[in-house]
Structures are given as structure tokens and as C-alpha cells.
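Exercise 7.
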Amino acid sequence: MAEKEKKVKKSENAIQRYIRETTGELRKVNWPTWPEARRLTGLVLLVMLVVGFFLAGVDYFSSVLINLALGI
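Solution. The predicted structure, written as C-alpha cells, is:
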């Protein structure tokens, strides 16, 4: 009976393993400083605005061309 107890190995819970591995990976991350984070956030917002205006222009001009082609 003692042999059966030795063979049965308590496996780690999947949720516990996930949390342990995730915290281990987060410790390896090179986090930016606050000035870097603010600068990069501003850059992302600027790129979003530029791309948004570009797509709005493409949408507007394509709708004008389609309306001209269809005679609407």
C-alpha cells in the first residue's frame, strides 16, 4: 500500500502553474520609465490621429469616385 502512495504524485494545479509562470515572466520585463511611457503614449496617439485622418480621406475620395461612376 505504501508503494501506491509513492506512485501517486500530486500534480500542480493548472491555475497555480499559470500564475507562477506569469509572475516569473513579468519579472523579466524591462519596464519603461514614466517619461518614456508618456513619450511613447503621445507617439501612439499621434500615429492614431494621422492614420485616422488618412483613412477618412481615402473613404471620402473613394465614395466621391464611386458616386461619380454610378451617376448618383
